[in-house]
Amino acid sequence: MDEAAKYKKATYHLWTFTASKLIAMLGTNVLSFGISLYILAMTGSATSFATNMICSVLPRALVAPIAGHVADNYPKKRTILLAQAGTILTVGGLLLYTETVGMSVYAIYVATVVNTICSAFSGVTFSSAIATLVNPERLQRAISFNQLSVSVAAIGGPIIGGMMYGFFSMKVFLIVNMIAYSIAFLLEATMNFTLYSTRDGDVKKEKIWEGLTSGFRYIKQQKVIKTVMWMSLWINLFFSAIVVGGTYIIIELLKVKSTHFGFIEASGAFGMLIASVYFATGAEVKVPLRFSKISLLLLASSLSLAVLPLLMKLSYLTIVIFYIVIYFIFAIFEMGINMPIGVYMQKLISEEYRGRVFGLMETMAMSMMPIGMLVYGILYDTLPATAILLSTSAIIVTITLVLLRTSVLKEAHPEFYNKEIVTESVTN
């Protein structure tokens, strides 16, 4: 295929995978919203609700490395289509069960676990395939479009689900999800997942344990990749301070109404949307790790500012507006961290190891979420919220300055720092 034809196909991919991701994520979010309300209405139990949340997180964290191994050793298109088909069949099975036996909470748990596993395989494989779907010059745009679809689905899913819940039964939610995934399946079936592949056609398949071991060895040898993974682990742990603390502080301590808290959370999704558009239409970040470092330091500073309503006497309206702005800023800076690193990692990691590296990163990130939530849940019950947020902000700043120190940035971007040195020498 000549370059002009490849470029045209890459443009098709750019829009097709964005559309497929948006449609599938909307279907997922609408169903998740409906199932959450259904479980609470059916059982009235927070434990049942929490169990379903665990079923949607834990299996993904456990199987992500295996999904990464599969992504590296088997055709990506086949893996993604099988995973999407698995989701369609699982939801279809739950619909059939509901029609014949009746809706059951335990049936929902089983379906959630299977869907989560399928999502792990399709998600990790898609992440490892982006660099082979589009040309390197449009990687940032592709990843931005990917995030854009997630943001739109995060905003639209609950809205659509909320409108549907008052008028339709749970069966309709299941049918909508199946239709959404069927459309995504058909779109993805038209894509060429080897368009910009640099690997030979005949890939030697490794056994799972051998593949995972070689993946670990590869990460161990790559200092910059290892640093980014450690950053991901620690940041996911410590940013549970705002995931847990935000709701606790705003609703419990400051007595903001739940409807107004909804606006605060929506501002975060809107911030992600704005940032995604910026990265999709703007020039590619030239020094990704330095950009992410600055964004991370600014995010940590914003975290410390979140304590101001606890220290100052502010009106109710001022408190709501303040946190709308803070959550919006959080989302902007979060995208400023994730987007450049995502593009950089796509280019840095060898194609034959991308699945395993992204799979391991996902496991590390997702495993830190429940640990962080548990730790900070205990801390907020025993210590003042102000002290927790200020300490966490200081810890994040320290970790950032240590892990992303200048020597690491020079190793990651020698072309930029060597250029700076040459410029200084000429100037002097």
From TrEMBL:
Database matches in PANTHER family: MACROLIDE-EFFLUX PROTEIN, PERMEASE, MAJOR FACILITATOR SUPERFAMILY-RELATED
Subcellular location: Cell membrane
Keywords, ordered alphabetically: Cell membrane, Membrane, Transmembrane, Transmembrane helix, Transport
CDD domains referenced in this protein's UniProt entry, alphabetically: MFS_MefA_like
Full protein name: MFS transporter
Species, as recorded: Lysinibacillus pakistanensis
Transmembrane segments: 79-97, 103-136, 148-168, 174-195, 227-251, 263-282, 294-311, 317-337, 357-379, 385-404
RNA-binding as UniProt keyword: no
Membrane-related topology note: Multi-pass membrane protein
InterPro entries per the UniProt record, alphabetical: MFS, MFS_trans_sf
